[in-house]
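Progress report, Aim 2. The chain analyzed during this reporting quarter is listed below.
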Amino acid sequence: MKIAFIADGRINLLPSPDTPIRLLNCAIADTYREREREIRLKKEWKNQGAGAMFTGAFFPGQAILDVRALITGLSQGTDDRLIYALNFENSGGIYFKHPDPDKLETPIVSSANTCFYELDVNAEGRIVVSCAKHSLERHISLLTTTSGHLHIITEGECADANPKWSQKDEHILYYDSAGIGYGREGQFVGFGPRSIYRYNTKTQELDEILSGDAMEYCCPFEDKEGNLYFIRRPYKQNESGMSLVDFLKAPFKIIRAMGAWLDFFSRRYTGESLNTSGANPAKNSPKSPHQIFIDNNLFEAEKMIKQNAAAGDKNPGYIPRNWELIVKKPTGEEQVLHKSVMSYCITPDGIVYSNGKYIMQGTQAIAAELASKLVLYQ
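Predicted structure tokens for the chain:
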């Protein structure tokens, strides 16, 4: 059993539970990052120094900003290669990746105005992928490993994600979707709860399988026996607008933001901080809890680990215990398989899942990694 997974926008390979994790470098992403760094370094003079301050083009630190080229989707191909989605700002593509670093990566599709996210490939080489064009909306598209032509099959003001081919019926695919809420003036106000849908590529029939108001459902997978696996978790509604407390705090937040910017400027060009209060400003300033952002949810990592440990987890992670991996059998019976599940994959040796901090097999931690996407690699 080998597991490939995405961590921090990069592909990693876990050959076995007793083998160290191996990073699979992406040559296309590395080339893009290096080219962008060179371009920014050449343009640095336009945004630095007294001349830039005089013209109003001054922007400290622009040349040292991290160049983001993130892998956002991963799947096993029809051969010994992986297939991954890679995004550079507002453009992206889907590529083949061989675990042998000496073998070249080859493109399947690339676009200057489309970003690609979660994807899956079936035995016939058909790819289903979530994609977006410069908006919050994401839709499900079909293509093949031999053709880069995208055929969009969903639409509307929604964010479709996590598409997965059924192992029971080659014409069926599953995905989850959340509606996008807009205000009277067209401003974004939040996402609705995620629901699971089933789409028949032969008849073009679309059915809502699982939905709710207090709970949301995501990451569906149907095995050969017709068992449907999915993650169920509480729905946290996005609140729009500004409360009275937020309004009263706004001036102080603005002042604090301006102070942080000025302190950054001072550190960069003088090597000294503007904060000189007390014998040791670093010790006097309160340390904010480490926070982690996962799938539109913000968690206090240390607090969550303590809660999970207190609940009896031997290897507590960042994900709350009410994020549950469920299997729904063809009879309609539902069973909770694991708690604190961020992502998972079904293997011949059982279920492997991530609780945020660890990759787990049963109750055993087989790797310490924040894996956002797990894929069985054979």
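The helical segments are 27-42, 49-55, 244-270, 281-284, 301-310. The first strand starts at residue 2 and ends at 7. These observations will guide the mutagenesis work planned for the next reporting period.
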